[in-house]
């Protein structure tokens, strides 16, 4: 069976047992992060590239103050990471999981 077919069959099967309550709580908190349009815009702006706060503000048509506030939340949730470049700080998606969640969500609502 190919890996893709294994993933599809796994996605359609009921879990053997309910995950631990703490894990479910953490998962719910993660999904809450995606409930803010500004945060979603920031994540989309960072797809495949690294940007400064001012570049993100321009791309999302949002104030730098609002972007900084939302980046703090996204960093705490480990959805974005940052890299210092002299006096500048550049942000990017934390890993491929974030990219996948955004793409899967968009796929789901566009069906």
TrEMBL record:
GO MF assignments? DNA binding; DNA-binding transcription factor activity
**What Gene3D superfamilies does the database record attribute to this sequence?**
Winged helix-like DNA-binding domain superfamily/Winged helix DNA-binding domain
- UniProt domain HTH arsR-type: residue ranges: 19-111
Reading the lineage from the top rank, the first entry is: Bacteria
User: Which CDD domains does this one have?
Assistant: HTH_ARSR
SUPFAM superfamilies, A to Z: Winged helix' DNA-binding domain
Q: Does the keyword Membrane apply?
A: no
InterPro entries given in the database record:
ArsR-like_HTH, HTH_ArsR_DNA-bd_dom, Metal_resp_trans_reg, WH-like_DNA-bd_sf, WH_DNA-bd_sf
Keyword Transcription (UniProt)? yes
Keywords attached to this Swiss-Prot or TrEMBL record, sorted alphabetically, are: DNA-binding, Transcription, Transcription regulation
* NCBIfam families, per the entry: HTH_metalloreg (NF033788)
This chain belongs to which protein, by name? Metalloregulator ArsR/SmtB family transcription factor
User: Which species does the entry assign this protein to?
Assistant: Enorma shizhengliae
């Amino acid at each position: 069976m190919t890996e893709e077919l294994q993933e599809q069959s796994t996605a359609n099967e009921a879990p053997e047992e309910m995950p631990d309550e703490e894990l479910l709580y953490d998962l719910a908190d993660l999904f809450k992060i995606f409930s803010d349009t500004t945060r979603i815009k920031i994540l989309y702006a960072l797809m495949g590239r690294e940007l400064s706060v001012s570049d993100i503000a321009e791309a999302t048509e949002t104030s730098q103050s609002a972007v900084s506030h939302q980046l703090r939340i996204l960093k705490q949730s480990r959805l974005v990471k940052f890299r210092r470049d002299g006096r500048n700080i550049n942000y990017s998606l934390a890993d491929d999981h974030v990219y996948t969640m955004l793409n899967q969500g968009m796929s789901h609502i566009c069906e």
